[in-house]
Design brief:
Number of domains: 1
Helix content: 10-25%
Order of helices and strands: HHEHEEEEHEHEEEHEEEE
Distance between the termini: 47 Å
CATH class: Alpha Beta
Strand content: 25-35%
CATH architecture: Alpha-Beta Complex
Length: 253
């Protein structure tokens, strides 16, 4: 049976109204291309209902997180919510949450299609230390396409104060991840496709396949330096990025 994009979008939209984010009727039925089209359609509907897209995420960029989920190419999602470093999330507002530690790049130029490293760098006006708050709303490893239709686990991003990119080598930025005061892992920017700017290059090319583009003012979460970690009520996360800054968040009761 031919894929009916409009019907699939409506099915996912109605399921979302019931808080069913991984509709079982669509398990093992979607290609990634179809999933992205559903994702973008759902985001359009959410924005029409009053939300606002503020940027993009690129995920599954580092080998540890690819191995964690058994999928070996980047993916994209849409960002609709940002909060400042130090924000306290309420546990009941999150669905099986976790976090990823990333650099978030703020752009001041439009980017679309095939672009160079120089074009990507020239478009970045600020670099934020950042956390992506994700939700495990279903089994990403078993149903990667459904997960992409459901906006790639995205919940919110936590942003620290930005610094200029200038001549900074993002591939050489290191990070130290602490959970509840204990150092749990370290990582470096070269884990993210060799350089986080490569996430911008990949994203600009991928979005063009769907008639979309990076727009001036967008933020781009470039991908986690290390694997994804779960979050629980009472947790305090602090990540320090060398030469960039610190970002932290807590989960309250």
């Amino acid at each position: 049976m031919a894929f009916d994009a409009a019907a699939a979008l409506e099915d996912f939209w109605q399921a979302r109204q019931r808080d069913e984010f991984f509709p079982a009727a669509w398990f093992d039925r979607l290609t990634l291309d179809q999933a992205y089209r559903i994702q973008l359609g759902l985001i359009d509907r959410r924005c029409a209902a009053g939300e606002r897209q503020i940027g993009w995420k690129v995920g599954l960029t580092a080998k540890p997180i690819q191995e964690q989920f058994g999928f070996h190419e980047p993916v994209f999602g849409c960002i609709l919510d940002e909060v400042p470093s130090g924000h306290v999330f309420r546990a009941p507002e999150l669905i099986k949450p976790g976090f990823e530690c990333e650099l978030c790049l703020r752009t001041d130029k439009d980017l679309s299609g095939a672009i160079s490293m120089a074009q990507a760098r020239a478009a970045v006006v600020g670099v934020h230390p950042a956390l992506e708050i994700i939700e495990t709303r279903g089994d990403l490893s078993a149903q990667i396409a459904v997960a992409m239709a459901d906006n790639a686990q995205q919940k919110a991003v936590v942003l620290g104060a930005p610094v200029p990119l200038a001549d900074m080598r993002l591939d050489q930025v290191g990070c130290r991840v602490e959970i509840n005061g204990e150092l749990v892992v370290t990582g470096s920017g070269d884990a993210v496709l060799g350089n986080p700017l490569n996430s911008v290059i990949w994203l600009a090319g991928k979005l063009a396949d769907y008639g979309r583009a990076i727009r001036a003012g967008d933020i781009i979460m470039t991908g986690s330096f290390v694997r994804q970690f779960p979050l629980a009520a009472g947790d305090h996360v602090r990540v320090a990025f060398s030469g960039v800054g610190v970002v932290e968040t807590r989960v309250g009761a």
